[in-house]
UniProtKB/TrEMBL annotation:
Residues 446-571 form the Schlafen GTPase-like domain. The gene is LOC116303844. SUPFAM superfamilies: P-loop containing nucleoside triphosphate hydrolases (SSF52540). Residues 51-64 have a biased composition (Low complexity). Pfam families: SLFN_AlbA_2, SLFN_GTPase-like. It comes from Actinia tenebrosa. Residues 259-356 form the Schlafen AlbA-2 domain. Gene3D superfamilies: P-loop containing nucleotide triphosphate hydrolases, Schlafen, AAA domain. This is Schlafen family member 8-like isoform X1. Residues 1-64 are annotated as: Disordered. Coiled coil: none annotated. PANTHER family: PROTEIN SLFN14, SCHLAFEN.
Length: 973
């Protein structure tokens, strides 16, 4: 982000305050007085506007308070931006200060809200302070296109408190996705140019379908001009300007200043022409005097530079340079009767086919990680207004709320509703505890705290819920920086008391634990607003509590009291409580792993209710077995557990992930996390099936490992004993013995018996006692048609498996190439490869991203054989192995090696079952293959006989090959 000079931003735990010297970055380009959104020109000022004469401006926003605030601010979980301002300055002198304060306000509204603290450097008169606030109001209205931006009123967003020389502006998060200080966008309406300010108007402009220019790429100019005659009046696509001589400014510069807004406005609508030399009011033709050819050349050059100074942006955010004769045209027409060197200068701007044209990069104030006010990067800003420009539209359909018959659907919104319903359910006098097992904690301090808290809830007939964590930062993406004396972090939620974040300490609380607690509470409030979408005026009260094992807690009354520094509007209520609990769900259930694909802006993956309950209610479980059908999210849950273990403070060497194949191993090894030093490091120790067997040959290999996660465990066989160095024992015995020692690591195992494709004994057959069992039952990966195909064809005798959405998707295709009777076996194999080539080329030609396609073979021998044939008959088609996670291209891999992975499109190439191959049966083989597909599944079978062996003869389609034999297919052609 580009850093801007702003008021010093402080976390509330800091006691020092620094003054601010505003920086003048006013645009040099003049803005017209009427240059506002045409649909926002008659915006009212709410009810407050009528009372400005009789009531102070501050009071029209929020009641003033005489309660001292400055001493209490250091105890609050807020972001504060400080300014030193002289309210007594003249209106012209305070312009920059007003602008800087407004930028700070917008930055807070674009992030999580906070407080602007203004220290008056001189004792302000009430009228002067009110006049200053009125200037701030007017500037806000001008900049944002309405009183307070879209959807919000001043009363919704701002509360003001004053105390002597101090003025406090409490700022709430904006209801719209993003507020823009200045979009630098213009559009044409009613024959005039207007600013585009509101979020919805910006989105409408940027997402407009391809614009058609009025000129149809062949501009038609007025060509005959006679002095004193009248040209047709201005229209949507035509504007007239007469440039009068300006001292110390040449014609070229003057022309470009007047042209600037028209370039942007015409390019963003349907194109248009500006005629210089025509009086704009009555359209009299007068012409512009051009001294000589040198001045004419200067005008041409200036117009080109004016065009190139603008930001011409494509949908991707890439900036391009406009082309003369394509994006704009320039003509000089002599004016008859005006003498030599008098011209009408015509500049035609074509409608831009890209996203939009900007005068310059939009200015959008936000706070960075250090809570400094900065300018948002252009591509990030663009993505927030073009949510469909990135991401998979099919995934977005899945994320919409679905209802269908008796089936429970766990899409994002349903996940929120399902988990919310469980959390919000309560009764008077009851304080719910999550996770449930925390109520059985043996920690005396924790027991004492909850005993006192429960007693208070019972006596007052309150209801609420607490969330207990060793470190609450785990839930909000913070690394574990918890001081040693902090035992637990406890979030207490109730409609009857403020939202409390308590750091319970053993012994005395130190300054470190105080800072830790405030930082955590500040981050939590921001996350609830930004990711949870809580638009209420609320606060998180940070509490650092020293609690002994014997003594009662005597400060609960003070702890639960309202923080008087906040305005009355910030008090808790039942409605706010419900909104906060609902906002907590996406915070608690968010999938933090980069493992899941990106699904579009403001849509992020959530754990299903099943996944959420398994993770949170069993997080401390030492031995847990999780089973579930393919596509139910076992691997996602496994990786999410590891992420949260890391954020609890465990190093990557203390967490071991074991999987069955090299592809998943490579993908997990590729995941990096940032350590406390800000450097990337591996997520965890990662080994595949053969790798862990070799690793266990090392003496004390597992020393230091505190948590083990095993995925796809159904593929792990009881291999022959390991070398003599391990006592000749099976590798699984060594692992299980380690998990039963005096200080055993936790062990979570994920498996699915329906995907067990190998014959012979599995390690799960000899699983020791002591494991709890949890079940995932809802598939969330595949479409309805793929899910139905798998269940009806290959899992007929299994239990009924629910699907977590109702995205129908495409029919599964089962293809066999038409085979001439005289075709030799070798020719037939080439024909099969040509069928694959034709499918892939068609997809690529239609714009399908090669990275979303996977082709799976029965074994590595067949993969190598068909890959060689494929390479011999294609050019410029990027293909890669599944293990090459950092490369781009179509994946060619085996069914076995790709277990645990998925792609949007899966092509199963010549799968076949051989009783002597080691596979358990053809159903397990096909379940493992077909369940890798998220959106589209195609099976290319060798012949009718193979189709019959899989029970697919009834859905078989014979296909002709569109290529000539031995032809090399160019994927760029």
């Amino acid at each position: 982000m580009e850093r801007a000079k702003r008021g010093k931003v402080l976390q509330m735990e800091k006691n020092n305050k620094k003054s601010n010297q505003p920086h003048n970055d006013e645009s040099k380009e003049a803005e017209g007085a009427g240059d506002v959104d045409p649909q926002q020109r008659d915006v009212s000022i709410d009810d407050d506007g009528s009372s400005l004469e009789s009531t102070s401006y501050s009071e029209s926003i929020g009641s003033a308070s005489s309660i001292p605030c400055q001493d209490e601010l250091a105890k609050l979980a807020e972001i504060v931006i400080d300014f030193d301002i002289n309210f007594n300055k003249d209106k012209s002198e305070r312009k920059e200060e007003v602008k800087e304060v407004l930028k700070a306000e917008i930055a807070l509204r674009n992030t999580s809200g906070g407080v602007i603290r203004i220290n008056s450097t001189q004792k302000p008169a009430v009228k002067d302070r009110d006049d200053w606030m009125k200037d701030l109001y007017e500037k806000r209205k001008t900049l944002l296109g309405s009183e307070c931006g879209e959807k919000d009123s001043i009363g919704d967003i701002l509360d003001i408190k004053t105390n002597g020389a101090m003025t406090y502006i409490f700022v709430r998060k904006s209801s719209v996705t993003i507020l823009t200080d200045d979009s630098h966008l213009r559009q044409r309406s009613e024959g005039r140019n207007y600013k585009v300010s509101l979020y919805s108007r910006i989105c409408e402009l940027l997402n407009r379908k391809k614009r058609r220019c009025v000129c149809a790429n062949n501009p038609k100019f007025h060509t005959s001009f006679r002095l004193g005659e009248t040209l047709s009046y201005e229209t949507m696509t035509e504007e007239h300007k007469l440039l009068n001589p300006i001292r110390n400014e040449n014609l070229a510069n003057n022309l470009c200043t007047k042209l600037s807004d028209n370039v942007v406005a015409f390019a963003n609508t349907q194109g248009g022409t500006v005629y210089f030399g025509i009086e704009d009011k009555h359209s009299f033709i007068k012409g512009q005097k051009i001294e000589d050819n040198e001045e004419k050349d200067n005008i041409l050059l200036s117009i080109v530079e004016c065009m190139e100074r603008k930001l011409w942006a494509l949908d991707s955010g890439e900036k391009v340079k406009p082309k003369a004769g394509e994006d704009y045209h320039i003509k000089f027409f002599p004016v008859d009767g005006a003498g030599d060197n008098t011209y009408v200068i015509a500049v035609h701007i074509c409608a831009f086919p890209g996203t939009a044209v900007f005068k310059k990069e939009p200015e959008c104030s936000v706070l960075d990680q250090e809570n400094q006010t900065v300018k948002m990067e252009f591509k990030e800003w663009l993505s927030l207004h073009k949510p469909t420009s990135v991401g998979d539209e099919n995934d977005q359909k899945k994320l919409k709320r679905q209802t269908c018959g008796r089936t429970v659907y766990y899409t994002v919104k349903d996940t929120i509703e399902d988990i919310y319903s469980d959390l919000i359910e309560g009764s008077p006098g009851t304080l719910k505890i999550r996770p449930k097992h925390a109520m059985h904690s043996r920690n005396r301090s924790l027991q004492t705290f909850f005993s006192c808290l429960n007693k208070m809830f019972e006596e007052n007939k309150w209801e609420g819920i607490t969330f207990i964590e060793r470190c609450w930062g785990v839930n909000i993406g913070l690394p574990n920086t918890k001081p040693a004396e902090v035992i637990r972090d406890i979030l207490v939620c109730s409609p009857s008391i403020p939202l409390l974040l308590v750091s319970l300490c053993k012994g005395e609380a130190t300054s470190e634990s105080l800072k830790y607690n405030i930082k955590l509470a500040t981050k939590l409030k921001g996350i609830l607003a930004q990711e949870g979408g809580c638009m209420e005026k609320f606060y998180v009260k940070p509490i650092t509590l020293a609690c002994s094992e014997e003594d009662d807690i005597g400060i609960l009354d003070e702890m639960i009291s309202h923080a008087s520094v906040y305005p009355h509007a910030y008090r808790m209520s039942n409605e706010k409580y419900q909104a906060i609990i609902k906002a907590l769900v996406p915070v608690l259930a968010k999938v933090n792993s980069s493992f899941k694909g990106f699904v579009g802006n403001h849509l992020f993956h959530l754990l299903t209710k099943e996944q959420y309950e398994i993770l949170f209610e069993n997080f401390e479980s030492p031995k847990l077995m999780i089973t579930g059908p393919p596509g139910s999210g076992k691997t996602v849950l496994a990786i999410e557990r590891i992420h949260r273990l890391r954020r609890q403070g465990f190093s990557f060497k203390e967490v071991l992930f074991v999987c069955s194949n090299e592809v998943l191993e490579a993908k997990v090894r590729h995941i990096k996390v940032t350590n406390l030093d800000g450097k990337p490091e591996p997520l965890c120790l990662t080994y595949n099936y053969f790798g862990i067997i070799s690793y266990l040959r090392i003496k004390h290999a597992l020393a230091g490992v505190k948590h083990i996660v095993i995925d796809e465990c159904q593929h792990f066989k009881q291999n022959p004993p390991t070398p003599q160095s391990t006592g000749g024992r099976y590798w699984w015995e060594i692992l299980m013995d380690w998990c039963d020692n005096k200080n055993p690591p936790s062990l979570w195992i994920f498996s699915d018996s329906s995907q067990r494709i190998f014959k012979g004994p599995c390690v799960l057959d000899s699983l020791p006692d002591g494991f709890s069992h949890r079940q995932l039952s809802t598939v969330i990966r595949t479409t309805v048609k793929i899910h139905r195909f798998i269940c009806e064809r290959f899992m007929k005798n299994g239990p009924l498996i629910q699907l977590g959405h109702n995205l129908e998707g495409e029919d599964v295709k089962v293809l066999v190439p038409n085979q001439p009777e005289e075709e030799e076996e070798e020719e037939h194999l080439v024909t099969l490869v040509y069928l694959l080539i034709s499918l892939l080329k068609d997809m690529v030609n239609k714009g399908v991203d090669p990275d979303t396609i996977g082709v799976l073979f029965t074994d590595r021998g067949e993969k190598a054989f068909y890959r060689k044939l494929f390479d011999e008959h294609t050019e410029h088609c990027r293909v890669k192995d599944g293990r090459a996670v950092s490369e781009h291209g179509i994946v060619f891999d085996t069914i076995r090696d790709f277990c645990g992975e998925d792609k949007d499109i899966i092509i199963g190439f010549c799968p076949h079952f051989d009783p002597n191959s080691g596979f358990q049966n053809n159903e397990a083989l096909m379940v493992s293959l077909c369940s890798r597909a998220k959106l589209k599944l195609i099976l290319i079978l060798e012949d009718d006989q193979v189709a019959n062996s899989f029970g697919l003869a009834d859905c078989l389609k014979k296909t002709d090959i569109p290529f000539v034999k031995d032809e090399v297919i160019n994927f760029r052609g």
